[in-house]
Description:
By secondary structure, the chain is of the alpha/beta class. It is built from 17 helices and nine strands. Strands 1, 2, 3, 4, 5, 6, 7, 8 and 9 form a nine-stranded mixed beta sheet that branches. It is globular, with a radius of gyration of 19 Å. It starts with 11 loop residues before the first strand and ends with a helix.
Amino acid sequence: MKHAHDLVNASTAWNELAVHLERLWNQSAHSACTKYAPDDIRFEREPLGPNGVIRFLNIPLGSRNGITLPSPDEDPAFASADALHDRYSRFTSLDDFLHYYFIGMSVLVHAQDFEALAWEYFARAHADGVVHAEVFFDPQAHTGRGVEYATVVDGFVRACRRAECAFGMSTRLILCFLRHLPVADAAMTFGDAKEDLMSGRLAGIGLDSSEIGFPPGSWQLIYAQAKDSEIKRTAHAGEEGPVEYIREALEKLDVGRIDHGIRLTEDEDLMKEVAQREIMMTVCPLSSLRLRCVKAIADLPIRKFLDADVAFSINSDDPAYFSGYILDNYCAVQEAFDLTLDEWESVATAAIVGSWCEESRKSVMLTKLHEMLEDYR
Length: 377
């Protein structure tokens, strides 16, 4: 998510969206995921928020920027990095997570802070084999506390360029509106970002943060303006919120993707429509588990999506908060569903086809995927 998968405690965790080429199972490191050992292409959505928060607690980022985090007396979770990490394992809801997410975001002030945060994510993603990353970020969370929009974007763009040069990783940035803030504020942000969206510096728009009580249709006018300008559109819907939010996002926002979307199976007619229209769901297994949207990974609609020909990708979401980067999410799904190689091919192909990179880049990744799969047939 959404939802706002952007922050951990002292940094910025992204709304990540990424396609991966990496070793999916490693006999020694992931013994539970060893039915195959293929390299796989993945599509991962991940928020740029305090993703590296625990590491950043060991770096005087807050102190350098004059930001005071809560004291242990105010919140025992801030007694140490270990205490904070333990608290991250006990989120009770999306809003509980967002409370810590936005505290963590507060230490980001200068462009170099945003660059450092994004770079930490890209370096970790590269280690997991990511070759294309589409990452969400929430400028309103920063502009609302006095940080300039350009400061946020400039820092993230620098990190994207570094990742492209150092890792050969193609990247895209997706600007998300915070649904718990007034729509008028989102309209101002859209105006600030319009030039970057039109130029391609930003890949498109999304909608995240608190889902329940904030139906997506409220942002219809902004999304209509984006459509008129041929700007790509997605939205978080149907994770904590009802399946009706998915329908509303499709009908009123005319989105081309749905982030999360795990409640789609509650409306069979809508699920058939989504399959026919090839609307991709970007599923984030471990975050949905940690946010208690499901009781177990096995409760996710992975098998139902496959059986109904619903296109979906497996992604990480605020991994520093939810203790799950992309490979962890893949292994969790494999352990729960025991997917076949052909089923993983379907997931990986959908991830690539549903990405927002250019067709030539998709072609390269599809070719790599098919070449890899032949080694395991």
